[in-house]
Amino acid sequence: MSNALGLRRRFVKAAMDAPFLGREEELALAQRWKNTKDQVALHKLASAHMRLVIAIAARFRHYGLSMADMIQEGHIGLLEAAARFEPDRDVRFSTYATWWIRASIQDYILRNWSIVRGGTSSAQKALFFNLRRLRARLARDPGELATRTIYTEIANAVGVSTDDVAVMDSRLSAPDASLNAPMVEGDETGASSRVTFLVDDKPLPDEVVEDSIDGERRITWLRGALGVLNDRELRIVRARRLTDDADTLEALGERLGISKERVRQIENRALDKLRRALIDRHPEVQAAMA
Question: For residues 20-41, b (16+ Cβ closer than 10 Å) or e, as one string?
Fold first, then answer.
């Protein structure tokens, strides 16, 4: 641990001791790297701007992540900036690199700050990194009305809904909690863990299997019972009861050339025949119908 701390201190000292680059020297190094991929030029350009990486990473230290890791991610952003920098645009490299360094560090924070993925859109990302600062206003006036007003102001400023602001605020208010962590101190059995209190509305595996078997059995019974119907009764029952898009009495009557009242009578008679056939062949059906 002490060795790692010593290495980090030496790294920071070396970055701070690196000489500043003048505008002309910076431009010359950027052109050498862009035109000839001169690694020495890239190293000098990156080394001179590592203090910028450290300064930007320090702004995010309150997120509780490793400073060394954030500096490393910022260094990746710095190299990305060097790869994309256009020396002929008359812009200082530090100005251009700042955006890439900050974006790389912010992406790292979003990936590692919580086990729950968040900030996937640009608006959500802006909300995540601005809400902590804006929440200071909530602390000064924590009333319910003030909270709703500030949520609305933040939502309008960032371009998200007030519900998104409320959800993000709740996430930033407390760290993630493991579902396997005990809710009662000293419980080593896991009986009081949060996961034991989660409710699953899905049926149990044995219920799924039972329903599947019963469903197949009923389909087989119904197919056998349909044999007691004549052709017209079977056609009406299929069109009215055995299809997702059931025909109306009127439409079915027009196709069969009979009135809709006659269709209704035939349908009721066919259903009675089916019911009697099922009960005669499978007496347990009567108990289910009761």
Answer: ebeeeebbbbbebbbeeeeeeb
Per CATH, the number for 205-289 is: 1.10.10.10
Average confidence score pLDDT of the chain: 78
- Domain 2-112 - what CATH class? mainly alpha
CA 246 – CA 160 distance, rounded (Å): 44
Q: Which two tokens stand for residue 88?
A: 């002929």
Q: pTM higher than 0.70, yes or no?
A: no
Q: Are 138 and 146 in contact (CB under 8 A)?
A: yes
Q: Which amino acid is at 42?
A: L
Q: How far apart are CA 159 and CA 142, in angstroms?
A: 23
Give the pLDDT band of residue 76 (cuts 50, 70, 90).
Answer: very high
pLDDT in tens, 142-160: 555 456 677 777 777 777 7
Give the separation between CA 47 and CA 35, rounded to whole angstroms.
19
Contact 164, 155 (CB under 8 A): yes
Torsion over CA: 189, 193, 197, 199 (sign): negative
Q: Rounded distance, CA 101 to CA 196, Å?
A: 43
Return phi, psi of residue 183, to 5°. Answer: -85, -20
How far is residue 18's CA from residue 10's CA, in Å, rounded to a whole number?
12
Q: Is 193 helix (H, G, I), strand (E, B) or coil?
A: strand
Give the type of residue at 33: W
60-89: burial string, b at 16+ Cβ within 10 Å, e else: beebebeeeebbebbbbbbbebbeebebee
Residue 275 has pLDDT above 70, yes or no: yes
- Helices 260-281 + 231-241 axis angle, to 10: 100
- Domain range summary for the chain, segments of one domain joined by +: 2-112, 117-198, 205-289
